[in-house]
Automatic annotation (TrEMBL):
Family, per entry: Belongs to the TUBGCP family.
Keywords: Cytoplasm, Cytoskeleton, Microtubule
PANTHER family to which the protein is assigned, alphabetical: GAMMA TUBULIN COMPLEX PROTEIN, GAMMA-TUBULIN COMPLEX COMPONENT 5
Domain annotation Gamma tubulin complex component protein N-terminal: ranges: 179-451
Protein name, entry field: Spindle pole body component
Length: 835
């Protein structure tokens, strides 16, 4: 209560006289609570006073008094308890003035009173930590403690005025003595370290405290880095990460030595200051910051990611970051080069580490691939691909070629070359990789061509699975016709093998027998029976196969699900054409024989003439149906399969020898002189040299082909060859290739048409059967009733044939409309041919 009474005296003496007593009492109470609160500021004071300013008129005199009152209360802000405020107010009241109005005038604000009151109170000189309490106190000479004019205080120095505030502050000499312990993460009495936090005493000035916050960052970073190094030093981590930890531990050791040198030689000098310490530690702090950011996610980061990050940072704009990154990068690069050399010379990858860009899937045989996310940025991409191919081909030669002697010599020779580089990855290293790549690819291609018959195998697969040898397929169908018409479950492996052997001997395939390969190539020919369920016949389930062995199996359709599924799809598509062709030829031969035999009976008999006439008309329909079948088959093989095969053989460099000889003759032979014979024919004047291919009996000509393609490129080219065939609109089953009018894929429409043609031939076969029975009855001259009954069946079959032909024509016209409206030039030309 005494506090508010004394404070009310001050309020009454300074506020405008127009303010009511109740308002003065309320203002005094608010000011008292404000001064005793922990949250004090000038802005809050002004807000409080503005509430009461509106209760009095706004005049110059009132504004002057409000300013005096505000300045008076501001002088009380630095005090924290009632006693100090009362002492200050009592000092004002004891000044030789008549009343409070004369005490707080503008003239007396410049006078300075006796400062002995605050000088004797040590509570106000503890620290500058809470600057909000003193932010508006400029100095003691601006205070209103005493409004006495004293000439003794006019010459007081700033040092003397501020000295009372530093009576309990820790001297900088003592601070510097304990800094070295904290910088090495060692706790001390002055700066204790608890739970990765450093405590700074309160009796240290704000300036020193701010600098210590910067200095002690080095200690905390050192503690954290040292903890990471120690925790992972004995853990099971990769060699690259261990190398990184060792290098960083060297940095920490150098940092410790630097701190010890700094303390004993420099810092303990009596003239040293915290600012000087911070200046000398600045670069070390930057270095520690960099290392901490580098190791922050150590457990989640593998060695390659560190190598990639350091490769980027070694070109950083900051010289310190650049030099540190370069040193760490070179250290890790030496270990990464060991990964490279192990792969290049031994085909070896540590599967337990996830730091190399080459991966091996143990669950899949010979599944080696490149991890695009781990392709080294410090190695050109084409060099990385060559590295991948070298190791993969090395394993390919070892496991599938069994070329152990050559691979061992190759490995030792290049291991010696790479050792000379001291694990430096530079242009010379890249040149050696390219030389190694060229050598191993050339050797592999040489073996593929001259030991494993790569070229001959490609042509055989074309001739057999893609029906390039039409005569062999025709002979096979003729020989196996009986079993092809039998139920699928009655087919035996022995019969299939026997028919295959007979077809090879009686077709152009016989030139592959008794050659230098000991029948290796032709013996891989096989037949398969598809499992289509009960009720199927041989035509539905029969298919040819060519059993590729390693190493060719790994580059022709390697890693494809279901083996040669693409070849099976193409074969089954072409097999439908061959089936229709066989039945057409068979039924045509029968119909020709029947017509000939009917005409032998009598050319004038109206019944026979009618039968022959109807038969001839059916033959016209059959010819139109077959013409569509053969035209579409020819287009499919010539324009789709053969064109793509020619592109494949040209790219690989395995063109037919006759084609090569033609090209050679055109390029190297001079134009021949010619002469005109008496018959008008033109003939060369002289002898023509025979082509070399005519004298080549070796199945394995020594020609350098494959154009240095590696095994991945050969596989890719072969896969593209198959994909190009199956992606052709006529064979594709994609919904994007549906016809405009039918809504079906072109391949579906073709299969439906081929099935319709086969049904037409089935009816035609029934017509031949009925006609044969009629022929027998006519020759036997049986009763007219029996012949009439057969003629009725004959007419029924004729109607079925006509109906099936109309069905075919409708499907054909719809298919042709789809081709015409597609907009593709090739399909438009096909539509013209089929029309």
């Amino acid at each position: 209560m005494n506090f508010e009474l004394n404070l009310q005296t001050l309020v009454e003496g300074t506020v405008p006289q127009d303010l009511t007593p109740s308002s003065i009492h309320s203002l005094t109470h608010d000011i008292a609570e404000f001064l005793l609160s922990s949250n004090k500021s000038i802005s809050l004071l002004n807000s409080l006073i503005n509430i009461y300013r509106h209760e009095v008129p706004h005049t110059l005199e009132n504004d002057k008094r409000w300013k005096i009152f505000t300045d008076s209360i501001e002088k009380l802000l630095p005090f924290n308890n009632q006693d100090d405020i009362l002492k200050y107010i009592s000092g004002i009241q004891q000044s030789p003035t008549r009343n409070m109005h004369s005490t707080f005038n503008d003239e007396m604000l410049g006078n300075h009173a006796n400062l002995s009151l605050l000088q004797s109170n040590a509570d106000y000189a503890e620290s500058f930590e809470n600057m909000d309490m003193y932010s508006d106190r400029r100095s003691y000479i601006s205070s209103h403690k005493n409004f006495l004019n004293s000439s003794n205080n006019v010459g007081t120095t700033l040092e003397r005025l501020t000295k009372p505030y530093y009576t309990k502050l820790i001297p900088q000499e003592d601070i510097i003595k304990f800094i070295s312990y904290t910088l090495l993460a060692t706790t001390s009495d002055m700066f204790p370290i608890r739970q990765n936090c450093i405590s700074i005493p309160k009796n240290i000035s704000n300036g020193d405290s701010g600098i210590l916050h910067h200095i002690f960052e080095a200690g905390l970073l050192y503690q954290k880095l040292n903890s990471i190094v120690e925790q992972n030093k004995k853990s099971n981590i990769s060699p690259m990460k261990k190398a990184l930890l060792i290098q960083i531990s060297l940095y920490l050791r150098n940092y410790t030595g630097y701190i010890n040198t700094l303390v004993f030689n420099k810092v303990e000098n009596s003239e040293s200051t915290t600012k000087q310490v911070y200046y000398k530690l600045f670069e070390k702090i930057i270095e520690l910051r960099y290392l901490y950011v580098l190791l922050k996610d150590f457990d989640e980061t593998d060695g390659y990611q560190y190598l990639k990050k350091l490769n980027e940072l070694k070109n950083h704009g900051d010289l310190l970051v650049r030099e540190t990154s370069l040193l760490l990068f070179n250290n890790l690069l030496s270990f990464y080069s060991e990964y490279l050399i192990d792969w290049l010379t031994l085909g070896k990858v540590n599967l337990n580490l996830n730091e190399f860009f080459i991966k091996i899937n143990k669950d899949v045989e010979f599944s080696i691939y490149v991890d695009e996310d781990k392709l080294p940025t410090f190695i050109p991409k084409h060099v990385s691909i060559e590295i991948y191919i070298i190791g993969k081909t090395y394993l390919y030669l070892q496991h599938y070629f069994k070329d152990i002697q050559w691979t061992n010599t190759f490995s030792k020779r290049y291991n010696l070359k790479y050792t000379k580089y001291s694990h430096n990855i530079d242009r010379l290293f890249f040149d050696t990789i390219h030389d190694q790549y060229t050598e191993i690819v050339n050797h592999t291609n040489e073996l593929l061509l001259h030991k494993f018959y790569f070229r001959e195998t490609i042509y055989l697969v074309r001739d057999i699975l893609l029906m390039g040898k039409a005569d062999f397929i025709d002979v096979l169908i003729m020989n196996s016709n009986d079993i092809l018409l039998s139920p699928s479950d009655s087919l035996s492996s022995y019969e299939l093998t026997r028919y295959l052997q007979d077809s090879v001997h009686h077709s152009s395939m016989n030139n592959l027998l008794n050659r230098c390969d000991n029948n290796t190539l032709i013996n891989k020919l096989d037949a398969r029976v598809l499992d289509l369920g009960h009720g199927s016949i041989g035509w539905d389930v029969f298919t040819l196969d060519y059993l590729l062995d390693e190493p060719l199996l790994k580059i022709l359709n390697v890693n494809r699900e279901g083996g040669r599924k693409e070849y099976l799809r193409i074969f089954n598509f072409l097999w439908r054409f061959k089936k229709n062709t066989f039945f057409h030829n068979t039924e045509t031969s029968r119909s020709t024989m029947l017509i000939r035999e009917l005409r032998k009976i009598s050319n004038k008999d109206p019944l026979i003439r009618d039968i022959v006439s109807k038969f001839s008309k059916c033959n016209v329909l059959k010819s139109q149906v077959y013409q569509f079948n053969i035209s579409l088959e020819t287009h499919t093989f010539q324009n789709i399969i053969e064109n793509n095969f020619k592109e494949l053989s040209a790219v690989l460099g395995i063109n037919d020898e006759s084609m090569e000889d033609n090209v050679m003759d055109q390029n190297n032979t001079q134009s021949l002189s010619i002469t005109k014979l008496s018959s008008g024919l033109v003939a060369p004047d002289g002898l023509l040299k025979p082509k070399g291919a005519a004298f080549k009996t070796d199945i394995n000509p020594k020609i350098n082909v494959l154009k240095n393609y590696n095994i991945d490129e050969i596989e890719k080219l072969h896969n593209e060859f198959l994909s190009n065939i199956l992606n052709n609109k006529l064979l594709s089953s994609s919904s994007n290739d549906n016809g405009t009018y039918s809504g079906n894929a072109y391949s579906t429409s073709i299969i439906l048409l081929l099935n319709t043609i086969f049904e037409f031939l089935t009816y035609y076969n029934a017509l031949n059967d009925i006609t044969y029975e009629v022929l027998i009855q006519l020759n036997l001259q049986n009763s007219p009733n029996e012949i009439n009954l057969l003629l009725g069946r004959f007419n029924t079959v004729l109607r079925n044939i006509v109906r099936q032909y109309k069905n075919f024509r409708e499907q054909k016209n719809l298919f042709l409309r789809d081709l015409k409206s597609d907009g593709d030039d090739e399909l438009f030309r096909l539509q013209k041919i089929l029309k």
